[in-house]
Write a structure and sequence with these properties.
The chain is mainly beta. It has one domain. Helices cover 12% and strands 51% of the residues. The chain has one helix and 14 strands; from the N terminus they run αββββββββββββββ. Strands 1, 5, 6, 8, 11, 12 and 13 form a seven-stranded antiparallel β-sheet that branches. Strands 2-3-4-9-10 form a five-stranded antiparallel β-sheet, with no helix packed on it. Strand 11 and strand 12 form a beta hairpin. The N and C termini lie far apart (48 Å).
């Protein structure tokens, strides 16, 4: 009888410990909505362009579009790029001015805040560009850097929501993996890059 009591006590203690550990690991914020995409798209040949529309909040309307283009012209050189633009007025991506040409998406770390005070918010920016023509050569952005997190904000109804998108652009600019996105369901509320 004593052995049975000890076994039951041990089992009860084990279940309590396992349950409490599970709760500690599950730190998900109930205000953060995560949308898995796990979408891979490729460019199979020269002079092709691929478009991927993203519906971050799953309301049936596209919020952003990712474009990937590969072009080679003997006289003009290479023109490979990945670009992201907003599909609705007021939807924007977090960007910075490139070292040579145009705006590029900011590559964020998990400690970076995405908020109304973040700068620069614009409706479109390059994720990666490789361009050679005559004496000009540009190779800038997130291609070949593994999984990258970028900031975005978009309208749900009349309210702006802040979020992030995780994507991976291959070093040859021919494959993009859109991994997942997340946003805070509370309007005008900041979110950390990668926060769930």
């Amino acid at each position: 009888m004593k052995n049975l009591f000890l076994k039951i006590s041990f089992l009860f203690l084990f279940v309590v410990i396992m349950t409490s550990c599970k709760k500690e690991k599950n730190n998900n914020n109930s205000n953060i909505i995560v949308t898995p995409f796990n979408s891979i798209f490729n460019l199979s040949s020269e002079d092709t362009t691929v478009y991927k529309e993203l519906d971050i909040d799953k309301d049936g309307a596209k919020d952003f579009t990712v474009i990937m283009k590969y072009q080679y012209k003997e006289r003009l050189g290479n023109n490979n790029y990945v670009y992201m633009y907003a599909s609705k007025i007021q939807n924007e991506v977090l960007a910075h001015l490139g070292s040579i040409e145009g705006y590029f998406l900011n590559e964020l770390t998990t400690s970076d805040s995405i908020s109304p005070t973040s700068t620069i918010w614009i409706p479109e920016a390059s994720a990666a560009t490789y361009w050679t023509q005559s004496r000009i050569s540009i190779n800038e952005g997130i291609a070949g850097k593994g999984n990258s997190i970028i900031g975005l904000r978009f309208l749900i109804g009349a309210d702006l929501h802040y979020g992030w998108l995780k994507l991976n652009v291959s070093s040859d600019y021919r494959t993009i993996t859109i991994i997942e996105a997340a946003y805070d369901k509370r309007p005008n509320t900041s979110i950390l890059a990668g926060e769930k």
